Amino acid sequence: MDQGAWEYRVETFGSWIRSPKDGQLAEALNELGEDGWELSSALPREGSQALTLIVRRRVTRVERRRRTRPGETW
Q1: Domain ranges of the chain
Q2: 13 with 28: CB under 8 angstroms?
Q3: pLDDT tens track, the chain, 74 positions
Q4: 25-63 as b/e, with b when 16 or more CB fall inside 10 Å?
Q5: Which helix (H) or strand (E) holds 27?
Q6: How many CB atoms neighbour CB 71 within 10 A?
Q7: Given this model, what pLDDT does residue 73 score?
């Protein structure tokens, strides 16, 4: 079975003066999870109230090839 490689996505919540609401984070994580993403890291943004989430999911070789050669038939 091809485990593939990881695909990463970075999402930031909150702002310089407001931290993210728990409900907002839970909703975002649930939506990401439904699409196959899993939380890899959660990091506070230095000098602000924002929180950056790094999520990842597996991408197979076939999917990577499909993305780099969109005109080909698979």
Answers
A1: 5-68
A2: yes
A3: 456 689 999 999 999 899 899 999 999 999 999 999 999 999 999 999 999 999 999 987 777 777 777 666 65
A4: beebbeebeeeebeeeeeeeeeeeebbebebbbebeeee
A5: helix 22-34
A6: 4
A7: 62
